[in-house]
Design brief:
By secondary structure, the protein is α/β, with parallel strands linked by helices. Helices cover about 40% and strands about 15% of the residues. The protein has helices at about 1-10, 45-55, 70-80, 95-110, 125-135, 145-155, 180-195, 210-215, 225, 235-240, 270-280, 295-300, 315-330, 355-360, 370-380, 385-390, 395-405, 420-430; strands at about 35-40, 65-70, 85-90, 115-120, 140, 165-175, 200-205, 245, 250, 280-285, 305-310, 335-345, 365-370. Bound molecules: adenosine-5'-triphosphate (ATP) and magnesium ion.
């Protein structure tokens, strides 16, 4: 079982379709755009359709995007008597001279501060210089892909010299008790220790979360202080709520008390995640097994998703439903990863990784064996698997999952034959 598990973890499983790369490579990181207004004036239905598709991308969820036809002439007409939005997108099929004349007319009716993106057909450096001189923020050459639009709009609002903003990795179970939290905590530990990436584990199971127990922490403050004081949230406030677990790992702990109930609106965690994202390179969300407005929103808006499933039929059905829904809601992203956990319980009939691979059209990222002694010891001691048994295969798996999810390879744990295979997999998955 374990041998097979390792093979799957290393991407060698040939039983299912190969891990497919999504349209957005996992090492490309596009920070979401803030609440801005965008108006596109298109000339072709193809471009209008692409802008429409981009407007449905998770990274533009907060932006208000309106699309109309008519190009620059329609834009000039529209803004003669109306204020301009934050961003205007102009598509033009014209030649260079006409493009510049059109933009000069637009400039007369454009409010200061409005950014302009032009989509044209002409690939010419002189035109490009003239556009830059006129203050055009971006010139894209048609045909433009959905993700190019997303990147162009989001790029306007993240300063080029800004620190790389944080990636959000959401970990969720296909069923309760499958080990989603354990995996989230161990993977975060590996990201922080082996990849030296500053990370925060956010325990979103406010009533019953175990991150505090698993990291042997009992902080007086945590996520509840933030989610119940939305007006106070900023980076400094969130920083004070974090408890430090290791050099690079901090915890935003759940209270795990029942004196209040935890019903949240869909956007309850938006401000907290924005604050974390602006200062922490890697945010690991321990998402409880629930299907509510806020859990769905956290999953859809995460940069990467790891669904943890046990090897039974209910897990298979639920994992498939989750992966299908998330793929459909995130057409411009890498598909959600999933892994199997607690595999190989003696005498238990189980659904095989190959069956999962077939149903989910993707092999599992890892198949983690059922190891009650190891996991039980770690849980009861408030330790990670790597602390209980650093050289155990399972500790190595968590390191490998960390690498794939962060799109990184690292030298520190490179051991013999594992790395070439692993890096091959990362390239495939990336
Ligand atoms: N591979 C494994 N082998 C043996 N025990 C495991 C394994 N993975 C997790 N466990 C144990 O399973 C139990 C449940 O794990 P965990 O709390 O992480 O699950 P969960 O999916 O987050 O559950 P919940 O739905 O309550 O949030 C824990 O006691 C944990 O130590
Ligand atoms: Mg949990």
């Amino acid at each position: 079982m374990i041998k097979h598990a390792q093979q799957v973890a290393l991407g060698e499983d040939t039983s299912g379709p190969a891990a497919s790369a999504g349209p957005a490579a996992s090492d490309e990181h596009i920070a979401p755009a803030p609440r801005v207004s965008v108006q596109a004036f298109c000339e072709t239905v193809e471009t209008a359709a692409t802008v429409q598709a981009a407007s449905e991308d998770r990274r533009l969820a907060k932006a208000h995007i309106k699309i109309q036809m008519g190009g620059v002439a329609a834009a000039v007409e529209a803004y003669r008597g109306a204020p301009t939005p934050n961003v205007i997108i102009i598509e033009t099929e014209n030649r260079a001279g006409e493009i510049l004349t059109g933009l000069d007319r637009l400039a007369e009716v454009c409010d200061a501060g409005t950014r302009v993106i032009v989509i044209g057909r002409i690939n010419d450096v002189t035109l490009y210089r003239e556009l830059t001189r006129r203050g055009v923020s971006e010139y894209l050459i048609a045909p433009v892909g959905t993700i190019d639009f997303v990147r162009a709009i989001c790029g306007l609002f993240s300063a080029p010299d800004a620190k790389p903003v944080g990636r959000i990795l959401a970990v969720v179970g296909a069923k309760g008790g499958v080990g989603a939290s354990t995996i989230a905590h161990n993977v975060a530990f590996a990201i922080a220790r082996d990849l030296a990436l500053d990370s925060v584990v956010t325990d979103l199971d406010l009533a019953f979360g175990t991150a505090g127990l698993d990291y042997n922490q009992d902080p007086p403050q945590g996520i509840a202080d933030a989610v119940f004081s939305p007006d106070r949230i900023d980076t400094a406030f969130i920083d004070r709520l974090l408890s430090k677990c290791t050099e690079h790992l901090s915890l935003l702990a759940a209270p795990a008390t029942l004196d209040r109930v935890y019903d949240f609106g869909a956007d309850a965690f938006d401000a907290i995640l924005d604050a974390l994202r602006s200062s922490i390179p890697c945010v690991v969300l321990d998402v409880p097994h629930q299907w509510a407005g806020w859990t769905k929103r956290l999953l859809v808006s995460a940069d990467d998703i790891l669904v943890v499933a046990g090897p039974d039929l209910a897990n298979l059905r639920n994992a498939k439903n989750m992966v299908d829904l998330l793929r459909a809601s995130r057409p411009n992203d890498h598909r959600p990863f999933y892994c199997l956990n607690q595999v190989g319980v003696p005498k238990r009939p189980e659904i095989t990784p190959a069956d999962f691979a077939k149903a989910l059209e993707d092999p599992p990222l890892a198949v983690i064996p059922f190891e009650p002694q190891l996991f039980g010891t770690a849980a009861n001691n408030g330790q990670m698997i790597a602390e209980v048994a650093a050289s155990h295969k399972t500790a190595e798996m968590f390191r490998q999952i960390a690498q794939v999810l962060t799109g990184r390879t690292e030298a520190k744990t490179a051991r013999g034959g594992l790395m070439p295979l692993l890096s091959k997999f990362i390239k495939k998955a990336g």
